[in-house]
């Protein structure tokens, strides 16, 4: 192994390494020279002459307590007990990013293309990297920078402006961390009795009061802040306008954000109301691989933050952490917002999404929010290092959660009631779960749990659907992504819904409720995404017939604005 230390290493933060593996000296130099010019001040640049030397370099780095941000290698052949240098890197450094180096144009060679596809399908690499052909080769540097940004986000090496101080057995501690993470904010977590926490509290003149605390960038200590206080602490607005807006969008998941982008960009005065975090259920997905335009995939949180910023710069306003509790239908829509405010709008788009159904397993209840999570909470993945984890559910959200957890956990199992995953999960995810060693427990449901102590889950009781037989499996944490229920209980009776609460739209309003269900003028019919109330539209998972895919939700959110314009007429944007 050849190490090329930086000329000015950081005095406070140990440098993570970038490892280049290539047997050919010329190939290795071609990769090392641009890396050293751009990254040597912040990263330790290492090189190895071939895969065997690369694995030895990994072992040496790990033994020294170092960290690895990126490995670039042009050889994926087996090395000893390891499948290849990429597999060895991931075993030793779960957050590492791995790039398979190819020559420019070699993707046209069938053997190279098949190798890249095989390595990606089996989770051996994150993506391929084209070896630089000139200097500066900004395409090469863009690929490297994207890898390093992803690594930085996964290990939380961004500037940590916030610190959450709280007992990890308390659900609110986890919720505060999740809210910050989903808002694009990286936060430290300290146990209240840790030396760093004691020092911070002593500096602020506080004792640990038994509830979670949040230290802000300005050094202020927030004592068990509510969601609105936390939002304001990192610069998000919770205020509501006093006048009438053209469009109120309820919900800031992919569908609501798309509606906000298109409405605001076309001149509509737009307000988005969101009770939780930007991004909805998709915001918790660790990696969405099949979203158009993101060939390497994108995390749900990053996609949501990009969409939020896009809507904001077009002029959309956001009322963060604001819960809509009711709606009056009249000449204007009046949305009741907790605790006692009203938003008036000429049109409304319902993009409220869904929430996961609670399992009827009493043994899990004491651990909800601490080691039992409803939704694919990617922020909790690193805490599962070496643990046994269950994911309950067979949809894409469950598959993405299981893949992300498999980076860290000792074992990951997916529990589904059906006999397999093919009916509910994308094929690429099924293949990757198999490659990652995720176990499938089919034909079973969770019915109870047992604990090692008052704050530690130990085992989960499952029941066979066909026979009623019960058996136990080890589980230190459970992630539940089943039984999605739409957030529509607050809507007035004028808005037609089915028995599950999903909003009925378009021609189905007349087919389901008859002409009397439609509140529009005689002779008119609801538009494609319009509810039974003219000017009120529904998009995304809250709408009956939605496809439950991010791309579909974004499509509905963008398409609905043409119908909003038609309803508003010439007053829109005026």
Describe this structure as you would to a colleague.
- With 574 residues, the chain is α/β, with parallel strands linked by helices.
- 29% of the residues lie in helices and 23% in strands.
- Strands 11, 12, 13, 14, 15, 16 and 27 form a seven-stranded mixed beta sheet that branches.
- Helix 2 packs parallel to helix 3 (85-92) and helix 9 (254-265) runs parallel beside helix 10 (300-313).
What is the CA–CA distance across the termini?
67 Å
* Count of runs of 4 or more consecutive helical residues: 14
Structural class: alpha/beta
Q: Specify the biggest β-sheet.
A: 7 strands, mixed
The share of residues in extended strands comes to: 15-25%
Low-confidence residue ranges: 4-13
Helix content: 25-40%
- Compute the number of strand runs: 27
Q: What form results from the Cα inertia axes?
A: globular
**Average pLDDT over all residues:** 89
Task: Tell me the Rg in angstroms.
Answer: 26 Å
